[in-house]
Amino acid sequence: MQKTESAVMGVILAGGLSRRMGGGDKGLSFLDGRTILERIAARLRPQVAALFLNANGDARRFKALGLSILPDGVPDFPGPLAGVLAGLDHAAQAGFDEVAVVPCDAPFLPADLVTRLRAGTQAGRGAVAVSAGRRHPTAALWPVHLRTALRKALVEEDQRRVETFLRRHDFAEVVWPAEPFDPFANVNDPGGMAEAEALLAHFPAA
């Protein structure tokens, strides 16, 4: 897809090991008849010019999503920052200036996520989502020019905490209301799945 001048590339971060869900791919867990990843892709795809999935291992397990896969370029599963870096590297090659990243376990993401993140920041600065007083470091807008600093942090400094990197580079905070439900509620353990199912029972359109 050819980008427009203001287009944003999107990346769903699914390169982790899902230890709290007992291993496997938590994004492939079903929630009311659809996988969590299907829900996220459907929510994010209209907001970006091109959408990719950051994942490692056999890509065939994600075939139903119809997304191109971006594996980590840094070995040994160093965490979400490796997925972000893979996205930034691909975006640089494709001519994008910004990348919106989202986690693979948040099925209720806002339909205005990218628009509001972009409106809440200034040129050259990133933005991170906040709800209920909590920052969501894997729901953020990244300027592509940070890829050099990110590679140094990962490879040379072994810096793996997303929040640490965001604070170091002064990402702007963009706040969402958490009522009637938190749009960044995640499903990273069996308890989170039960809560998501209960939420859908009360808000079927979520």
From TrEMBL:
<comment type="function">
    <text>Transfers a GMP moiety from GTP to Mo-molybdopterin (Mo-MPT) cofactor (Moco or molybdenum cofactor) to form Mo-molybdopterin guanine dinucleotide (Mo-MGD) cofactor.</text>
</comment>
<feature type="binding site">
    <location>
        <position position="72"/>
    </location>
    <ligand>
        <name>GTP</name>
    </ligand>
</feature>
<dbReference type="InterPro" id="IPR029044">
    <property type="entry name" value="Nucleotide-diphossugar_trans"/>
</dbReference>
<feature type="domain" description="MobA-like NTP transferase">
    <location>
        <begin position="10"/>
        <end position="169"/>
    </location>
</feature>
<dbReference type="InterPro" id="IPR025877">
    <property type="entry name" value="MobA-like_NTP_Trfase"/>
</dbReference>
<keyword id="KW-0808">Transferase</keyword>
<dbReference type="GO" id="GO:0005737">
    <property type="term" value="C:cytoplasm"/>
</dbReference>
<keyword id="KW-0460">Magnesium</keyword>
<feature type="binding site">
    <location>
        <position position="26"/>
    </location>
    <ligand>
        <name>GTP</name>
    </ligand>
</feature>
<comment type="similarity">
    <text>Belongs to the MobA family.</text>
</comment>
<feature type="binding site">
    <location>
        <begin position="13"/>
        <end position="15"/>
    </location>
    <ligand>
        <name>GTP</name>
    </ligand>
</feature>
<dbReference type="GO" id="GO:0005525">
    <property type="term" value="F:GTP binding"/>
</dbReference>
<dbReference type="Pfam" id="PF12804">
    <property type="entry name" value="NTP_transf_3"/>
</dbReference>
<keyword id="KW-0342">GTP-binding</keyword>
<dbReference type="InterPro" id="IPR013482">
    <property type="entry name" value="Molybde_CF_guanTrfase"/>
</dbReference>
<keyword id="KW-0479">Metal-binding</keyword>
<comment type="subunit">
    <text>Monomer.</text>
</comment>
<dbReference type="GO" id="GO:1902758">
    <property type="term" value="P:bis(molybdopterin guanine dinucleotide)molybdenum biosynthetic process"/>
</dbReference>
<protein>
    <recommendedName>
        <fullName>Molybdenum cofactor guanylyltransferase</fullName>
        <ecNumber>2.7.7.77</ecNumber>
    </recommendedName>
</protein>
<dbReference type="GO" id="GO:0046872">
    <property type="term" value="F:metal ion binding"/>
</dbReference>
<keyword id="KW-0548">Nucleotidyltransferase</keyword>
<keyword id="KW-0501">Molybdenum cofactor biosynthesis</keyword>
<feature type="binding site">
    <location>
        <position position="54"/>
    </location>
    <ligand>
        <name>GTP</name>
    </ligand>
</feature>
<feature type="binding site">
    <location>
        <position position="105"/>
    </location>
    <ligand>
        <name>Mg(2+)</name>
    </ligand>
</feature>
<keyword id="KW-0963">Cytoplasm</keyword>
<keyword id="KW-0547">Nucleotide-binding</keyword>
<dbReference type="GO" id="GO:0061603">
    <property type="term" value="F:molybdenum cofactor guanylyltransferase activity"/>
</dbReference>
<feature type="binding site">
    <location>
        <position position="105"/>
    </location>
    <ligand>
        <name>GTP</name>
    </ligand>
</feature>
